Every structure is written in structure tokens, then in C-alpha cells.
Amino acid sequence: DWSVGEMALTTTMDPQKHQLVITNGFLQWERVSRHQDMSFFGEDEITILPNPTNGRFDVKIETRQQGRIAIDVFNVNGKRIVTRRTANFAPPLVEKFDLTGQPAGTYLIQVTLTPLPGSSGKTGLFRIVKI
């Protein structure tokens, strides 16, 4: 189903299951998550600076868990602009991004940690403003 009045990119959190669902204007008739053992990053684990930015910014990840990191940057229309993947994450990790070729506005950054076997993953959705 399509909802005309819904924003182009909607973030929905299910606090009972600690799940994050990103939709692009579609109504969700059921919530299905492939990350059943997912928690959210704490405030001190992800730093995005500078914010607002002229285009260049750093994403610093300082979590004690190890595993694979995925960082995706989306525009306000929900289009993925940049994707970064690390094979083996060991803290701290600093990834540099450059959106100077993109228009000014709000962008969303999704960071996902796929952990080593035996622990749960983490995810987070962060906003950055390009001026």
C-alpha cells in the first residue's frame, strides 16, 4: 500500500522488540526484521562531526563489540547515496565522507554492526544537515 501523505522516509522503532524499520512511504502490513537480536548504539558509541557540515564529515564508531560494520547514507527521498562496509571492525573506526557534490539538506546515516558469533548486533539511525 502507498500512503500519499506519508513522508518519503519514515523511521519506526518497535520498543518491545528493539527493532528499527525504515520505510519509503509504504504502509507496513506486517513487521518483519532479519535482525532479531539487535540493540541500538548508545550516545557515546557513534560520533558524527561536524554537524551541520559543508559536505565533509567523519563517522567515528567506538563500541566494544567487534564484527562487520555497514554505514549507509540516505537522502531525504530515501535514496542510498553512499555505502561503506568493513570486513573486520575493531574500535575505534573513523570513516570519512564527502557530500560536497550533493544538494544542501538533511541526510540520514544508518550504522549497523553485524557481530561476531555469540553476541547481538547493534544499529542506529542518525541525522546530519548539509549546508
Q: Overall pLDDT, averaged?
A: 81
Q: Largest beta sheet: what is the strand line-up?
A: 3-10-9-6-7
Residue ranges: pLDDT <50 for 5 or more in a row?
Answer: 29-35
**Tally of separate helices:** 0
Task: Give the C-alpha Rg.
Answer: 15 Å
- The global form is elongated
What is the H-and-E element order?
EEEEEEEEEE
CA(first)-CA(last) distance:
34 Å
Summarize the amount of helix as a percent range.
under 10%
User: Structural class of the secondary structure composition?
Assistant: mainly beta
What is the percentage of strand-forming residues? over 45%
Largest sheet: 5 strands, mixed
Secondary structure: number of strands: 10
What can you tell me about this protein's structure?
β9 and β10 form a beta hairpin. The strands form three sheets. Strands 3-10-9-6-7 form a five-stranded mixed beta sheet, with no helix packed on it. The protein has a three-stranded antiparallel beta sheet with strand order 4-5-8, with no helix packed on it. A two-stranded antiparallel sheet has the order 1-2. The chain has strands at 10-14, 19-23, 38-40, 46-49, 56-61, 67-74, 80-89, 93-98, 105-115, 121-130. The model is unreliable at 29-35 (pLDDT under 50). The chain contains no helices and ten strands. The protein has 131 residues and is mostly beta strands. The chain is elongated.
